[in-house]
Here is the input.
Amino acid sequence: MDRRAFIGSVAGSLLAAPLSAEAQELKKPRIGILAITRPMQYPDPSPNWQAFLKGLRERGWVEGQNIVIEWRYTDGRPDRSLEYAAELAKIKVDVIVAVAGGVAAAGSATRTIPIVFVGTTDPVAAGWVASLARPGGNLTGLSNIGFELNPKRLELLRTAVPAATRVAILGHPGHALYARMRSDVEAMGRSLGLTLSFLEASDPIEFEGVFMAMRRERAEALLVLEHAIFFAQRRALADLAMKYQLPAMYELRAYAAAGGLMSYGANLPDLFRRAASYVDRILQGAKPADLPVEQPTEFELVFNLKTAKALGLTIPPSLLQRADQVIE
Here is the structure.
């Protein structure tokens, strides 16, 4: 080999090396995440996404090694959900994992990329799947059946605060199942002999005014219905409940961890861990249409005793004995 040919060969090798490395990086499966809050965001270290990553590792998928994860954080804002869902579809990730409002956004962004939803209320009623057993499209995942638990939450709140006869109900009018949630809660309220005040908020800037309305209504306790914005602003809601001295019940443990009095709902870390199995099967070639939607198998009742003490409230011992977690 003459000198010119040798130099050309070396140069070609040097150019090929980074291109080869880039090609290998592009070959790694890419998972798009539409999350509400960051994995390590205050006020808690999001056990949900930690459980998801652990579930992936248990199945041999490790971020930065053999998979790439594209994280997008919406903070519960519909505009960001739509923007980030379109972005993930444009870069053609292999699968999208979406929660709350991110599910509808992902579904509108792509009809071909597999979508795994986690913790949605009723995917059939929302029109995301044809049925739980046979989803039939590019979406599948895990439901938290959250709205079905609202009557039970109201009953538990009444047990925790037996003197309360007037209860405020905070809901988001834009939730697809808000009317049904309201109807279910009204029925339980009648059976418990409670006077209910339904108040609505669509944006965090409305929270203070809504709590002032609760005071005018002489509410003695509060039930917060589910919505992504409420979840993203759980610390603000807990602070306002404390400011207005309202014992409050929420849907998920993260609310109690953020300072809310109590919560009752599906064990979300368990659902997120199980979501990893959907991602694994899809990356192995399974179709979402053939993967049945699963429901929760674990539910948890959580109390924040620091909050109870600050409210001057004593939780009945019989109720504490039923708790899955007590925050002290």
Notes: The first helix runs from residue 3 to 27. The mean pLDDT is 89.
